[in-house]
What we know:
Pfam families: FTSW_RODA_SPOVE (PF01098). Belongs to the SEDS family. FtsW subfamily. Keywords: Cell cycle, Cell division, Cell inner membrane, Cell membrane, Cell shape, Cell wall biogenesis/degradation, Glycosyltransferase, Membrane, Peptidoglycan synthesis, Transferase, Transmembrane, Transmembrane helix. The protein is mainly alpha-helical. It has one domain. The chain is 63% helix and 3% strand. It has a 3-stranded antiparallel sheet. Strand 3 and strand 4 form a beta hairpin. Helix 9 runs antiparallel to helix 10.
Amino acid sequence: MNARERWHRWLAAVAALLPQGRSGPRAAAAAGGEIPVRLMRRDWTRSPAPAASASGIDQPLLWVVVALLSWGLVMVYSASVALPDNPRFASYSPYHFVLRHALAIGIGAVAGVIAFQVPTSRWQTLANPLFLVAIALLVIVLVPFIGKGVNGARRWIPLGVMNFQPSELAKFAVLLYAAGYMVRRMEVKEKFFRAVWPMAMAVGLVGVLLLAEPDMGAFMVIAVIAMGILFLGGVNARMFFLIALVVVAAFAMVVLTNEWRRERIFAYLDPWSEQHALGKGYQLTHALIALGRGEWFGVGLGASVEKLHWLPEAHTDFLLAVIGEEFGFVGVLSLIALFMWLTRRMMQIGRQAIALDQVFAGLAVQGVGLWIGFQAFINIGVNLGALPTKGLTLPFMSYGGSAILMNLVAVAFVLRVDWENKALMHGGRA
């Protein structure tokens, strides 16, 4: 056998080692010229998945979240420190809200660490059961003597250390369910009734339960998450816009048929009128006064006047107004930039997962990006007077135990998907 024949036989042997009819990182590496080689009985092209460690996660994303949590903790204290002067909170200490907020961050951090250890494939398996649990909790919270009512809304289940809000779990459960649904229905995504109708029924059921609380803000976020995942999953564009029109029409009907919601819309359109300034437009007018007082660089940390019993819910829905008053236009602009970067990074991680054939993980991460980005957009818009007042908190920052908990679990899921992406790109396993 001459050298030429030996060379052809060696190439044939190498070709036999390559995977046939497969796609993914290994096949791509092989197509790029990476040939399996065995030296001293070791296959140098196969490497085990790296151990899950802090060094393998997206450090910039993690630190942006830590920055938002830290800034939020400081601002919750600043916005709530004077509340004990109000007879309604006379029994509370000045540190009541900030300590509970810090406890929620601690619980959320522990839950996030646990969630990070769960493989994406396991999350996909749990998507349907978790959705059913969320539905059950949305029903339970409506039961008298179980659900806790505040300001006419029954949205919380008392758990001792915190009041849990099932709608926050529903946001995470719906995005997992929608991502899993699109993976299962990928072959019929061009057919409206087979691809969209079952998902619409599921979201409609969640919407009915949320409107019974009532919590229209959470329903809006969930509807955007579900519709966004359907669109990103490849549903026909004409069908998508048809669905969008139906959803907008449904929300308009809900508003127009409810006198209380209709009055809030009119108050938003003219908050300074004599009719609204001391009524439905009271919060908005004082939020705008706070932002105006902040001017370019703010009045200084802790120096807000509007938080001194003028602006209701300053530590929850209207925390941004206090930030604007104390840090000014520069502070608000910096906050918007952080949320824009965070949303964009999550969408990038999702696209990367889809490119690696991890469709469920990619769509779910993009769903988290839609959740955080849209909710921040709504909260900021409400505080700036650009949108009607809705009871939506600022992610990672506003006071609220269950919101912080589920935000951190969602971020841990995103970090897990990013870690698995890196493992796959290095030839390991997710």
